[in-house]
Amino acid sequence: MAESPRINASFIAVVGGGPAGLLAAQHLAEAGCRVRVYEAQATVGRKFLVAGHGGFNLSNAEDMSRFASRYGPEESRFRDLLHHFSPAELRAWATGLGIETFVGTSGRVFPVAAHKPAELLRAWVARLGELGVEILTRHRWLGFAGTTGLRVCDESGGPEAARELVLEPAATILALGGASWAKTGSDGAWLPLVEQLGVAVASFAPANCGAEVAWSAFFKEKAGRAPLKNMALRVNDGPALRGEIMLTEYGLEGTPVYASTPQLRAALATGSPANLYLNLKPDLTPEALLAKLQQRRPGASLPDFLRKTLHLGPPVPTLLREAQPEAATLNPKALAALLQAVPIAVTGLRPLDEAISTAGGIAFAAVDEHLMLRQRPGTFVAGEMLDWEAPTGGYLLQGCFSTGAWVARGVLARLAVSG
């Protein structure tokens, strides 16, 4: 690698070209700052585009108090972040790029059908260019230099021409993502670099991912990959979550499963039972369900009866047999109890790189109220590098955008003081 020239100029370095980093760059540039974004990949926003393949869910129109609760232990902190850059402001930001949005029936916020993720990203990059933001791709962060500097490898000319640069920015924003979807650049390789500073970190763990179940060979052959619609799911004695899940060869996936991963992960980590219970008829009271089941005539086939009376077709009979081999011979009361609490033992969670997001990263105790590293004044952290998690449904992207806006304000406050 070539010798390391020093770049000493009055600019702000943003390391990582995802939603958090790019929004921080935009806010700083709009405030008149000179900003450079350093991205290891050939293009910015790769994980943003991959996330868009699942429906391009930008945010959620949920009541703000309920919205903040989606961030679990960090609810209080995210209440402030959401107040600073709210879902309404996110929609206004998209409109400013020429991307109109709408609120779906579930409360999720989407761009109108005519707008694809790549279109929004192109408009965003163009806006950043108009503001004078420099985006340097194929520039990989190598770590820190001295008390304020950064080491970056310029790989834009190919491996043979790679050279190390030492940057001396006025302030630094790290927005390198978590550790899921490594192919997009979000690989968590930065974690040991901040650990070297003595920064408190939590190990990465999968969030918003599928749950593994030890299905029998019979179940895998008969059920295969099949959806279960209009059901409710709970972990042990926890609250029920409504939605649709998908039976897979390895276990379960779907929005209610993803939202349950914090509870599943906690139970599995302590060796406690991680049991899911499916209510296949959540809109019926136990009494109403029992009344329907009592209509079954002696000798009637359980699969036919469930299909005709309760609209529960395949793969429900196979699932009931998997959970209770004697399901076909249960009396109405026992069958009603089973239908409203089908037990499924979770044996594990899917691998980290398959997860939609990750838990773990830099502990909030390691940053101040502006999300600046206590161990390295002038260096701020945004997005999934921080140890927080939220369910799918617009909460993840909103969290990244809001932390990006927040650190931009923190940088401006610091520069105003130091200036």
Largest sheet data: 6 strands, antiparallel, barrel
Could you tell me the number of beta strands? 20
> Count of helical segments?
15
For the largest beta sheet, what order do the strands appear in spatially? Answer: 13-16-15-14-17-18
The shape is: elongated
Give me a quick take on this structure.
This protein has 419 residues and is an alpha+beta fold. 34% of the residues lie in helices and 24% in strands.
Please, could you describe this protein's structure?
- The protein is of the alpha+beta class and 419 residues long.
- It has 15 helices and 20 strands.
- A 6-stranded antiparallel beta barrel has the order 13-16-15-14-17-18.
- Helix 11 crosses helix 14.
- The model has no long low-confidence stretch (mean pLDDT 93).
Name some characteristics of this structure.
single chain, 419 residues, alpha+beta, six-stranded antiparallel β-barrel, five-stranded parallel sheet, 15 helices, 20 strands, elongated
Give the helix/strand layout:
Elements: E1 6-8, E2 12-15, H1 19-30, E3 35-39, H2 46-52, E4 59-60, H3 64-69, H4 75-84, H5 87-96, E5 101-103, E6 108-111, H6 117-130, E7 134-137, E8 139-145, E9 149-154, E10 163-168, E11 171-174, H7 191-195, E12 201-207, E13 211-213, H8 217-223, E14 226-235, E15 241-247, E16 251-253, H9 255-259, H10 261-269, E17 275-279, H11 286-293, H12 302-310, H13 316-323, H14 332-339, E18 342-349, E19 357-362, E20 379-381, H15 395-418
Parallel strand pairs: 1-10, 2-3, 2-11, 3-7, 11-20
Antiparallel strand pairs: 4-6, 5-6, 8-9, 9-10, 12-19, 13-16, 13-18, 14-15, 14-17, 15-16, 17-18
